Amino acid sequence: MATTIRMPEVLANVTEAAVQKWLVAPGDAIAVGQPFAEIETEKAVVEYTAETAGTVLELLIKEGDNVDVGAPIAIVGEAGEVAPASPAAELAANAAEPDTAGPAEGEVEEQAVAEAPQPPALADTGEESAEEGSSEASSESTGRRFISPLVRRLAREHELDLSTVRGSGPDGRIVRADITALLSGERPSASVSAPKANAATTVATAPSTTAEPELIPHSRMRRTIARRLTESKSTVPHFYLTAECRVDRLLALRAEINAIDGVKISVNDLVVKAVAAAFGDVPEANTTWSDEGRLRHRTADIAIAVSLDDGLVTPVVRGVESLTVTALNAAITDLAARARAGALKQHEIEGGSFAVSNLGMFGTQEFSAIINPPHAGILAVGAARQAPVVVDGALEVGTVMTVTLSADHRVMDGALAARWLAAFVTRIENPVSILA
């Protein structure tokens, strides 16, 4: 019997997603656990594995199509079985009909508008989910077409007349990609009216020599970073503590390890290991907030900030306290490489109690980072640099590194945060203890 595969909720709080790449084709035999598709959300790209064995009968959406979580995306059944029509019909209904229950977060309802000339309008580029998941359906019998609020608001912002434009979506619906192409001039055959004059623009002005700024539509990841970090700064009471670590011995130990093992251990690897050791020294600091109570973590699960072309992602290394430095290096290197390739698994970007963000490789001396919930803190690591230091009343040149702890005051008071930071500095300045 045929089984409908639906868009999974691959990440918490995600209401829509897109198939970035199908890893199967109609007619392929699949087994449970076999890679089925690469699913792109506003947070990351994750690999979705099959939960049903059988033969792929039909793929219901194209690569790049954005649909709601729970919408049909494929049909799996027995070899030679004919795929039923109902899932495809359900998919079309989901795309064309407005949600009478009201939109969830990140979603918008499609509204029917007359095809007769009307004020041009478009939506904010921050609502990409509605633009690709919504549909514009036109009918000669009704003379009406469905245009998503996203498309209408973009048209309004750029003074575009969409009445004669036929888009690239089903039934000629206009999607955000069409608007982007119109603005960049890549589709000269599409009909776009000149901007309409208003009272302000009819006044004669001197020619402007300033070039118009380029509009760069928000990516899913950029929208999520903006939303989550705005929420974090608005709802999580941050406070900050800064310390300087002398790292001459740390750099010497790193050089010795690299010379012996032939593995290129980084300063960041040793920093992450020291973070885990400091949690061992001050276990009560390894706590996160929940509405029901504080969660005391038994292992040091630490997120590592990885820079991407259009943002960053924070994969989690679990049980850092039990890893050797070389094993930790291998884990971080693997996660960073797969993060940049968009190949992280769901569980690899969830959870954790703390994060490390290191900008030292860019020469940044000192900075403060924003906590990424549910983490209770993040350590911002600056560059190691030579500076004058005082030792036993005498001035000498040493190598120092500035670190700033951003802490969640709901679970960590100032004294506790100070104890943890002092433990971290002690571990960094006595690096052999990190290896124990």
Distance between the termini: 57 Å
Q: In terms of quaternary structure, what is this?
A: single chain
Helical content stands at 25-40%
How would you sum up the global shape?
A: globular
Unreliable segments of 5+ consecutive residues:
86-144, 186-204
Largest sheet: 6 strands, mixed
Number of strands: 21
Q: What's the alpha carbon Rg, rounded to whole Å?
A: 27 Å
Please, how many helices?
Answer: 10
Q: Identify the strand order in the major beta sheet.
A: 12-21-20-19-15-18
Structure characterization notes:
By secondary structure, the protein is α+β, with helices and mostly antiparallel strands. Helices cover 27% and strands 25% of the residues. It has 10 helices and 21 strands. The chain has helices at 86-96, 128-133, 149-157, 176-184, 220-235, 248-261, 267-281, 325-340, 414-429, 432-435, and strands at residues 3-6, 16-22, 29-30, 35-40, 45-49, 54-59, 66-68, 72-77, 111-114, 138-139, 144-147, 238-246, 287-289, 294-296, 302-304, 306-308, 311-313, 316-317, 354-358, 377-391, 394-408. The strands form 6 sheets. Strands 12-21-20-19-15-18 form a 6-stranded mixed beta sheet. It has a 4-stranded antiparallel beta sheet with strand order 1-8-6-3, covered by helices on one side. A hairpin with a 4-residue loop joins strand 10 and strand 11 (144-147). Helix 7 packs across helix 9. The longest helix is centred in the middle third of the chain and has 16 residues, at 220-235. The radius of gyration is 27 Å and the shape is globular. The termini are far apart.
